[in-house]
Amino acid sequence: MPSLQCQCSALQGELQPTGLANRLLCYCTDCRAFARLLQRPEVLDAQGGSEIVQLTQSRLRWTRGSEHLAALRLSERGMLRWYAGCCRTPIGNTLMNPKLGFIGLLHSCLDRQQLNAAFGTAVAVVNTDTALGQPKPRQRSLGGAILRSLRLMAGERLAGRYKGSPLFTAEGAPVARPQVLAPAELARLKQEDAHV
């Protein structure tokens, strides 16, 4: 069974091994801002990309330390970005609406040895226009990634499995109250791209 944990191992979980998954390498400025805010530059590759595995939230189960789970939003309308408050390990991204029950888990909390076996070797490369440096990586498999994401969300919604998410309460609120970044702080984090 695939596992996940934060860097200090205080927060641990496991993933149900069967089900649809979507692997992405994302070069967006928001993913970079999240890694920088948490002071976790090792999450990013040389051109500022983050590897993400999208799957349904109902496949996730915390086995230890769920009290360490924390959340933030880069803006009032931004995604929920989950991390381990104990050691600031990025965990993943979700939408604010719990009925759209997917999570994009960052590779930093996953066992690298299990990635290919658990989630396949196909990796979509997205948001390459905002990758750092030259030459830019080539965008790859965007259409397929979007279709798989829609299937993930639709399946959870139609089957009602989103109600079993370990990230939201029965009332639909995040289990950790998200901090919302001030616009000036987000702008500062994104300006760091100019100095890379």
From TrEMBL:
Classification via InterPro entries: DUF6151 (IPR046149), Mss4-like_sf (IPR011057)
Pfam families to which the protein is assigned, alphabetical: DUF6151 (PF19648)
Protein name: Uncharacterized protein
